[in-house]
Amino acid sequence: MYQLGERVKFSLFGKSHSSYIGGILEGIPAGMTVNENLISEDMQLRKPSAGIGTPRSEDDKVEFVQGLYNGKTDGNPILFLIPNQNTDGSKYLKFIETPRPGHADLPALVKFNEHDIRGGGQFSGRLTAAIVAGGSIVKQFNSKFGITTSAFTRSIGSVKDTEERNIADAKISKKYPTRACDQTLNDAMTEEILNASKDMDSVGGVIECITTGLPIGFGGIWFEALDAEIAKAVFGIPACKGIEFGKGFELARMRGSQSNDPFYYNDGVKMKTNNMGGILGGMSDGAPMVFRTIFKPTPSIGKEQDTVNLTKSENAKLIIQGRHDPCIVPRAAIVVEAVTAMVIADQIQRGL
Ligand SMILES: Cc1cc2nc3c(=O)[nH]c(=O)nc-3n(C[C@H](O)[C@H](O)[C@H](O)COP(=O)(O)O)c2cc1C
């Protein structure tokens, strides 16, 4: 099992083509009402959308084995399963000999004697369904503290949203398949994905995640810093290749006089700008916590690629068939929300 957190602890298990994937969520107190409709809504947001996602279609029905009683948490670890129904491993078997560039096949085959290559095994984006289910419960826990987390698509390929966005915009993105904040951007991003797909190729992009309601001083410091633990969790999501808080890498080109967020009083201490993304010293400064994370183009593409034949120890060509997302970004947004909420809940329960 793969684990995140200490007091609110999430354990993830399963493989792309095992009977089930699932999760165990510990540390959510007894007596909390769990709204299963909200879980279904989040699961829906991770599903592929017609045309721009993988043709693999799963019900993603979350089966609770223990931890919920009469719609409330009962204090036991919440254990849930999600069946894998729509599996076809046949197209993957050749990757044992000819690993896919950009995917985990090569290091996994070298590391694990019994690696299950079907669907990418435990490296599959499929496992993120369980993260989303767990994250959905955790978001309900965080909302009791007035904390809301919502993500949206900032860019896909060359299409970039250049507007200032807030949490309301991020919530609106849930009605667009690309998770863009408006129809025009959604159309442009859809076209970008379809063009890549037509070229038997894939495209990456940037997800922005906003959290409101964190009080000033919330969060750990040093290696327990809120941003440090979020970065670790977000990097755990397959295909994530970068993260920046606030103005991030742009800060390298600014002067302190431009980058510092000036304080002022208005019903408490506020910031005039939010270049730091709401984090100072690892703790919340009271401004919305804002970070962006980069998801690479989907590694499995239809175009012919150079690889190696591990049996014959010679160079080889590879054409990938099977069902793949031409762009991971729209489906990953809700996963980013989930792990962010998990880190926050864990830090709440650790008293940081
Ligand atoms: C929601 C989601 C869906 C994904 N779908 C695919 C896919 O259809 N095909 C693929 O090759 N990779 C897909 N990936 C990415 C791979 O799982 C990932 O690139 C691979 O495990 C290697 O890990 P790395 O990119 O972090 O190095 C997906 C990732 C996520 C988060």
Number of helices: 8
Number of domains: 1
Question: What is the general shape?
Answer: globular
Strand line-up across the major sheet: 1-2-3-7-4
Summarize the amount of helix as a percent range.
Answer: 25-40%
Which spans have pLDDT < 50 for at least 5 consecutive residues? none
Q: Pairing-aware structural class of the strands and helices? A: alpha+beta
Q: Largest sheet at a glance?
A: 5 strands, antiparallel
Ligand inventory reads:
flavin mononucleotide
The N- and C-terminal alpha carbons lie at a distance of: 26 Å
- The CATH architecture is 4-Layer Sandwich
The radius of gyration over CA amounts to 21 Å
Approximately what portion of the residues adopt beta-strand conformation?
15-25%
| Rounded mean pLDDT score | 96
CATH topology: Chorismate synthase, AroC fold
* CATH superfamily grouping: Chorismate synthase AroC
For this structure, what is the CATH class?
Alpha Beta
The total strand number stands at 18
- What's the helix-strand series? EEEHEEEEHHEEHHEHEHEEEEEEEH
Description:
By secondary structure, the chain is an alpha+beta fold. It has a single domain, classed as Chorismate synthase AroC (Chorismate synthase, AroC fold, 4-Layer Sandwich), CATH 3.60.150. The chain has eight helices and 18 strands. The chain has a five-stranded antiparallel beta sheet with strand order 1-2-3-7-4, covered by helices on one side. A hairpin with a 4-residue loop joins strand 17 (305-309) and strand 18 (314-318). Helix 1 packs across helix 3. The site of flavin mononucleotide (FMN) has 21 residues, from helix 8.
